[in-house]
Specification:
The complex is a heterotrimer of chains A (439), B (271) and C (494).
Chain A: H1 2-7, H2 23-59, E1 64-73, H3 76-79, H4 90-94, H5 97-109, H6 116-123, H7 130-140, E2 148-154, H8 157-163, H9 180-191, E3 195-199, H10 202-205, H11 218-249, H12 254-266, H13 271-285, H14 293-318, H15 321-329, H16 334-363, H17 366-370, H18 391-399, H19 404-435
Antiparallel strand pairs in A: 1-2, 1-3
Chain B: H1 2-14, E1 22-33, E2 36-47, E3 51-55, H2 62-69, E4 79-87, E5 90-91, H3 99-105, E6 106-109, H4 120-130, H5 137-150, H6 154-157, H7 170-182, E7 188-192, H8 200-213, E8 218-222, H9 226-232, E9 235-240, E10 243-249, H10 250-255, H11 260-266
Parallel strand pairs in B: 3-8, 3-9, 6-7, 7-8
Antiparallel strand pairs in B: 1-2, 1-4, 4-5, 9-10
Chain C: H1 3-31, H2 40-77, H3 80-83, H4 87-104, H5 109-115, H6 119-128, H7 139-176, H8 184-224, H9 227-232, E1 236-237, E2 251-252, H10 255-286, H11 289-304, H12 307-334, H13 346-370, H14 374-382, H15 387-416, H16 419-424, H17 442-450, H18 459-492
Antiparallel strand pairs in C: 1-2
Helix pairs in contact in C: 1-2, 1-7, 2-7, 2-8, 4-7, 5-6, 8-18, 10-13, 10-15, 11-13, 12-13, 13-15, 14-15, 15-18, 17-18
Classes of the chains: A mainly alpha (439), B alpha/beta (271), C mainly alpha (494).
Chain lengths: 439, 271, 494
């Protein structure tokens, strides 16, 4: 065969023209290979779908919260039995507000007030946060004492889970966290219109809480906002300045080579190393406060810089040299050429890169753990120097909570984070589409 | 196999000994790149064991026609071919025809030498190996030697068969690519401006090689150089703006063309 | 005057200088027939820079040096017996002094007078403001704290005067420079160029900062734990960081952490490389523009999802899924439905990390595969090779160096990944080859040693920096080599 292969001349009519070149087997291999490729892409997209589905299906519930609206009797005998609230402000602060909520529910459900056990269980239907909710209400309107007014309170996390169907009621009663009696009460309250699901504003505005039903991302959103602002204010000018120098002014020598290699490497350094840097330099050496958004912002700035520099240099490179020659040719200085002509033309590219860098920084968690952003912060940070958390760190903290209701909160928080990221990326895409220029 | 024997008989019947045998036949060939038409109703016959030169100014469609002869145009997504092109009487665009088998029969050498980033030996043995034409080391050695000898490269590289093919000079690289093509023992070899990237001395070597290969293969060559066409080919086809202007014996085309455009071109008025 | 106010004043002076100089030059220019070298705006900027820049420099130097100077003056005023005999004791004492002095600034005049009586008077007052003072604080320290605050006040006062003076003097000098032949533009551009250079060296400073800070802390760690024990120890058991305990009570063996890191990275690569590579090949060689325009961005979305989300996904979905799956499998084969895969395991963390890495592998490889010249493909197809033969025998071998570089970059990312392993790999440091059991990684331990309240001088926290530098060196080596390989590869086809 081989001999024929080499010496076969087309004139040789005796030898068959067609050779067996194993087509069947080769095409089978071709199909297999193609299938692997398709399977790989399919798997990748499938993983994405499962991931998003998991988050969304577990998380949409977090945007609804079970509330109880019931007429509460602000009995003076409970709040201020000795009538001393005028002299002692602590009276209103320390009053037994949960009792008010409990009494209101006992009445609404028609439970026998002498059945101590039942009464106690009824009290458990509202969240512990009702203490704060009622207290704030009374402190703001002291004249309600002695009156009966309908008030909306947050329901207990377990009640919330039950109503959303997260708790399997087919499990025998002794092995689940809600009793049959409680389920009956919940149904009764829902039927009476006392208990209903509402849009959950708390998840956006509340601070840290050990109770899932009142935990919110307010502090984290503000903290992340501060950090993004700091990153933007620092990383954008520094990054653009560095890129302009490297791209337009720097002589090509060993030093700029070192900077170049260094920037590429910094972009690939594990993020947690930046956390160690922040801890050692900003907190230990400079004495900036732990848990502050300022430190987080500085660390994220250093992390984002390489991304912005790489994107900006690409954008500057894309501006054709003819523009530069044109500017220099009419007597502009090199600085004027850069700032009047090259930079404006590169601006959309720079902006896109910056947004993508910011999106990366917004989702970054590891370095923030090391500089103390894992903190239980209840109050909004007034300045970037105050303790705060960040969106992804909040997610991390909730993911570590054991309670069932926190899984829903975590997923909800992830949805919020992903929405922010999606908005930023879409903005970047729109910018690119709108201003993209082909030379 | 059935079809093949039919084709063979047909050829035997249609081709008396003294008449030239037609190896490939193009009938009303049109080629489109997306909405743009690059070739218009080309009718051209390729004779067996002859060198056919395709000439014409750049952008005239000669490379397009060449690439449609072994369906290399298939690799361009937007490309569409209509009309008939036959090889030994079989339509090569017939869905039943296998493109891999076709290309094993109709090999191609490209404008720029494109050796694979492998050793010289591996470059040559690549084709036979994927087509299962070699079974053992001895077979492979034989194929490599014969192909390189035939390509006139063997003596220059026999001591460094296992060094990378990319280390050769331009002319050597192109001859390596030719050796790679003939290692599969195709029936037709298509050459797309094989010397355009080479210096004059390398060009002379490759032209000499083409001349020798004519005895065993049918060769179609696209060239920019009129002198080259005159030197190496027996038949010449002149293309202009996607249209086949004229075809005939090389001697005739270069001495007494029928079409004024051909005359203009070979005398250097345009192109 | 606070620094913020001072900076504002200087900036306002700068703006005023800009406006004055600009209007003066444009006035002169129209009055006289002399043509000016620089436009009025540049003279304005020259003036502004001259006003602001030196003043800010003075401020920065003052702010940094005054702390050192004041610290030393106060320290020398404290008697040796109060200060303590070792460097560590001195540090402790100065720490107490500075926390007292910080607390004193919160008190009003009346309370200050009381606090001056001594530590017993000061402690409750400070406690009421939320400043806790260490128990071994003593009266001389309170005195020192008062002295510290006094010096600080004097320094602040003089700082304001000197800085504003600097602004005025330098601005005044610039005012004398408003002339036709003065090359204000060139000077301004020189300053701008200097700023550009400064900005570009921040990247270098970051690297130097990383290296120096880690080396410093690692050095302190190695002072209490021998390097050999760290690098070759097989037991990780740091114990708790007991405040004040100086001798190391735990064992700090790096090997179990390194083994876990590499094992999880290996599992991740086993998931990501085949999927990512095949996806890249299909995308580059087979997919039509339509599929490409849909599938490529979708895969890239995977890269845009924060790693904490992957960690959560591992904890709530993948871990339990693998655990239940293994329980069912063992139920079928042995009849005993106990799970042999734990929810937190090498497999869980590795698999999820692998999913995260798919887009890295695919987009890096895609770039590299499309960089292989078209002539290579044509050459192979022209010989009658099928597409898959062309890919397997020509394109992939040609792209191999580039792909190896891409895989090394991916591996470095897998090694440095933190959030997925923190949530899904477990915290138990052990050496095992069973992928169904939890292992822990270098990054997990950095996080766990450094979160929560920490005593910064104990080996228990300092070890995080030793781990960090190990991680840094490991990934840096991989990155430099990988970037070098990729760069060489690109040059080959340019």
């Amino acid at each position: 065969m081989t001999d024929a292969t080499i010496s076969a001349t087309p004139i040789d009519a005796a030898s068959p023209r067609r050779r067996d070149i194993g087509l069947k087997k080769r095409y089978a291999a071709e199909r297999r290979f193609r299938f692997y490729g398709q399977a790989a892409i399919f798997l990748g997209i499938l993983f994405l779908a499962i991931l998003l589905w998991t988050v969304v299906s577990k998380g949409v519930g977090a945007f609804q919260q079970t509330m109880i609206t019931v007429p509460v009797e602000f009995a003076q005998s409970v709040i201020d039995p000795k009538d001393k609230r005028a002299e002692d402000p602590n009276v209103l602060l320390m009053a037994n507000y949960p009792l008010l909520a409990r009494n209101a529910l006992v009445q609404a459900l028609g439970v026998d007030p002498d059945d101590k056990k039942a009464v106690k269980a009824v009290g458990g239907l509202v969240s512990d946060s009702s203490r704060v909710e009622l207290r704030n209400y009374v402190m703001e309107n002291p004249d309600v004492i002695g009156k009966t007014i309908p008030v909306t309170m947050t329901a207990n996390g377990l009640v919330d889970s039950t109503l959303k169907g997260h708790i399997d009621l087919k499990v025998p009663e002794e092995r689940r966290q809600v009793s049959d009696q409680e389920v009956a009460w919940i149904n009764q309250l829902v039927d009476d219109g006392i208990m209903q699901k509402q849009f959950n504003t708390g998840i956006f505005v509340n601070g840290a809480s050990s109770r899932a039903e009142t935990a919110g991302m307010g502090v984290a959103i503000i903290g992340s906002f501060y950090m993004m602002a700091i990153v933007l204010v620092l990383a954008l000018p520094i990054g653009v300045a560095a890129s302009i120098y490297l791209e337009e002014f720097a002589p090509k020598n060993r030093w700029t080579d070192v900077i170049e290699v260094n920037i590429n490497n910094l972009a690939a350094v594990p993020s947690i190393v930046f956390g160690l840097l922040g801890l050692a330099v900003f907190i230990n050496f400079m004495g900036l406060p732990r848990s502050a958004s300022l430190v987080g912002g500085l660390v994220l700035t250093l992390m984002t810089l390489p991304t912005i520099i790489i994107a900006t240099r690409a954008a500057l490179k894309a501006v054709p040299p003819s523009i530069r020659s044109a500017a220099l040719g009419i007597g502009a200085s090199k600085m004027q050429m850069v700032f009047h002509h090259v930079l404006p033309l590169a601006a959309p590219g720079i902006l896109t890169g910056t947004i993508i860098g910011l999106a990366q920084a917004l989702g970054e968690t590891a370095p923030l753990l090391l500089i103390g952003m894992v903190a239980f912060v209840v109050d909004y940070p007034a300045t970037p120097m105050d303790p705060a958390t960040a969106l992804p760190v909040q997610i991390f903290m909730w993911a570590n909570e054991a309670e069932r209701a926190f899984v829903e909160r975590t997923s909800g928080a992830i949805i919020i984070l992903l929405l922010f990221l999606a908005a930023m990326n879409i903005a970047a895409i729109i910018l690119r589409r709108k201003f993209e220029r082909r030379w | 196999m059935n079809m093949m024997s039919d084709a063979a008989t047909e050829k035997a019947v249609n081709a008396p000994a003294d008449e030239p045998v037609i190896k490939m036949r193009g009938k009303d060939v049109c080629v489109f790149y997306g909405p743009k038409q690059a070739l218009f109703d080309v009718n051209l016959n390729i004779r067996e064991n002859a060198v056919t030169a395709l000439i014409g100014p750049s952008g005239c469609g000669k490379s397009t026609f060449l690439r449609s002869l072994n369906r290399m145009n298939d690799t361009i997504d937007t490309c569409r071919v209509t009309g008939d092109i036959t090889l030994d009487g079989e339509d090569i665009y017939d869905p039943a025809i296998d493109v891999v088998e076709l290309r094993a029969r109709v090999g191609m050498v490209f404008q720029k030498p494109n050796p694979f980033p492998k050793s010289i030996y591996e470059n040559v043995v690549y084709g036979p190996r994927i087509h299962g034409l070699v079974r053992n080391k001895a077979d492979m050695d034989e194929v490599v030697e014969k192909s390189l000898v035939r390509a006139g490269l063997f003596n220059e590289v026999k001591d460094r068969l296992h060094e990378p093919g990319t280390g050769l000079s331009g002319g050597q690289q192109q001859r390596l690519c030719i050796a790679r093509a003939i290692a599969v023992s195709p029936e037709v070899i298509l050459m797309d401006e094989p010397c355009s990237a080479l210096d004059p001395i390398a060009t002379a070597t490759v032209e000499e090689l083409i001349h020798e290969l004519r005895e065993n293969y049918t060769i179609v060559i696209v060239t920019h150089s009129m002198q080259q066409a005159a030197r190496v080919s027996q038949r010449t086809a002149m293309f202009h703006l996607g249209v086949l202007v004229e075809e005939g014996d090389t001697d005739k085309i270069f001495t007494n063309p029928d079409d004024p455009r051909t005359q203009d071109y070979i005398t250097g008025r345009f192109g | 005057m606070s620094i913020f106010l001072l900076v504002t004043i200087v900036c306002v002076l700068g703006v005023v200088g800009y406006v004055l100089a600009r209007s003066r030059v444009s006035g002169l220019e129209t009055d006289s027939s002399v043509s000016y070298h620089s436009r009025p705006g540049y003279h304005g900027m020259h003036m502004a820079i001259a006003t602001v820049l030196p003043a800010l420099l003075v401020l920065a130097v003052w702010a940094i040096s005054s702390q050192v100077v004041i610290g030393n003056v106060v320290k020398s005023s404290i008697s040796q017996e109060v200060l303590g005999d070792s460097a560590a004791r001195e540090g402790l004492t100065m720490g107490i002094v500075s926390s007292i002095s910080r607390g004193l600034t919160l008190l009003n005049a009346e309370e200050l007078k009381q606090a001056a009586n001594g530590i017993d008077a000061a402690r409750p007052l400070l406690a009421a403001k939320g400043v806790a003072i260490a128990t071994d604080a003593s009266d001389p320290m309170v005195t020192a704290a008062f002295r510290y605050n006094g010096l600080e006040q004097t320094s602040t006062f003089w700082r304001s005067i000197v800085v504003i003076l600097a602004a005025l003097v330098c601005g005044g000098w610039a005012w004398t420079q408003l002339g036709a032949r003065v090359k204000a533009r060139n000077r301004v551009e020189g300053v701008v160029l200097g700023l550009l250079i400064l900005a570009s060296s921040i990247a270098i400073l970051t690297t130097i900062g990383i290296v120096l800070s880690m080396i410093r802390e690692t050095g302190r760690f190695f002072a209490s734990v021998p390097p050999l024990e760290f690098f070759f120890g097989t037991v990780w058991d740091p114990r708790f960081a007991a405040a004040g305990a100086t001798e190391s009570a735990g064992q700090f063996g790096l090997l179990p952490l390194l083994a876990g890191t590499l094992y999880i990275a290996l599992v991740a690569m086993l998931v990501a490389v085949p999927i990512g590579l095949f996806a890249a090949v299909y995308m580059a060689e087979y997919a039509g523009p339509k599929l490409r325009s849909v599938a490529k961005p979708l895969l890239e979305v995977l890269a845009g999802i924060p790693t904490i989300v992957y960690g959560f996904f591992a904890v709530v979905t993948v871990g339990p899924f693998l655990r239940d799956l293994s329980a069912q499998i063992s139920g079928i084969f042995t009849g005993d439905a106990s799970s042999f895969i734990q929810a937190q395991s090498v497999l869980t963390a590795g698999a999820v990390m692998g999913i995260m890495l798919i887009p890295f592998v695919s987009s890096l490889s895609d770039d590299i595969i499309t960089a292989v010249p078209r002539a290579m493909r044509d050459g192979s197809l022209g010989l009658g090779a099928t597409r898959s033969e062309t890919i397997k025998r020509v394109i992939l071998p040609a792209a191999l160096p580039g792909i190896v570089g891409a895989l090394l970059l991916t591996a470095s990312r897998a090694i440095g990944e933190t959030m997925i392993v923190v949530l899904a790999a477990g915290v138990a440091a052990r050496l095992t080859i069973n992928p169904f059991e939890p292992m822990t990684t270098v990054t997990v331990k950095i996080v766990s040693q450094l979160t929560g309240d920490l005593e910064f001088n104990s080996p228990q926290t300092l070890v995080a920096f030793a781990l960090g530098i190990t991680l840094f060196v490991l990934t840096l080596g991989l990155n430099i080599y990988a970037l070098y390989v990729v760069r060489k590869y690109r040059e080959q086809y340019e």
